[in-house]
Design goal:
This protein has about 220 residues and is of the alpha/beta class. Helices cover about 25% and strands about 30% of the residues. The protein contains seven helices and 14 strands.
Length: about 220
């Protein structure tokens, strides 16, 4: 396996944040949910201990639990930030969401430098990821897929036995069903899914047992 995936579970929402690194030491941070000083330290300590060179910050989507650490990351590592353009309103709503959920000391995220497109290939050193546009949970939701490593970082599209909620602004169950069945369940069965919450799973397992099949 060329890529290494390090998972951190952060904040009261138990959100999974990821550092993806290549054999050359290049790294990208995906969905940093680090909210406390201890969580932020855990992220940066891992990066320092492994001598990683952070090349970019990527968002699968911009719900509050996935962007709590954006400002910290971009202040600590002066890199470009990538999201899908359709999630700009979600990013803009994060500060209000922090107030609603009682999250103290939220630092609003900087604006993105680049907008992601479906099927775009992202290359950062030895890291190569393909963008999969997958709305339904959020309007500009994307996943990051590595065919060579048989893995996909899915955000909140698909979980072990479940799927992302659709009752937030921009959510749509029919759109999410289409995303999962046409964009995810067409991936090879052995593809490992690194989820936005909960444990890892696989495409093959979810194709036969996921709750979405009942809809």
């Amino acid at each position: 396996m060329a890529l290494h995936i390090e998972k951190f579970t952060f904040n009261p929402f138990q959100e999974n944040s990821y550092v993806v690194s290549g054999p050359d030491g290049s790294a990208v941070i995906i969905d940093p949910g680090c909210a406390t000083s201890a969580e932020k330290h855990a992220l940066s300590a891992y990066i320092s201990a492994n001598n990683l060179q952070v090349k970019a910050l990527l968002s699968t989507h911009c719900h509050i639990d996935h962007v709590l650490g954006n400002a910290y990351v971009l202040r600590t590592y002066p890199v470009d930030y990538y999201i899908h353009k359709l999630d700009l309103p979600v990013l803009a709503a994060a500060e209000r969401s922090a107030q609603v959920y009682g999250i103290e000391g939220f630092e609003p995220s900087p604006q993105p430098n680049h907008f992601l497109e479906d099927k775009q290939i992202l290359t950062f050193g030895a890291i190569e990821l393909q963008v999969i546009f997958g709305p339904g949970h959020a309007p500009g939701h994307v996943a990051f897929y590595s065919p060579a490593d048989a893995l996909v970082i899915s955000g909140d599209i698909l979980f072990q036995g479940s799927f992302g909620r659709v009752d937030l602004p921009g959510g749509d169950i029919e759109v999410l069903k289409k995303t999962i069945k046409e964009r995810f369940f067409t991936l090879p069965d052995e593809t490992i899914i690194y989820c936005g919450h909960g444990p890892n799973t696989s495409i093959g397992k979810e194709k036969t047992s996921n709750y979405i099949l009942q809809f």
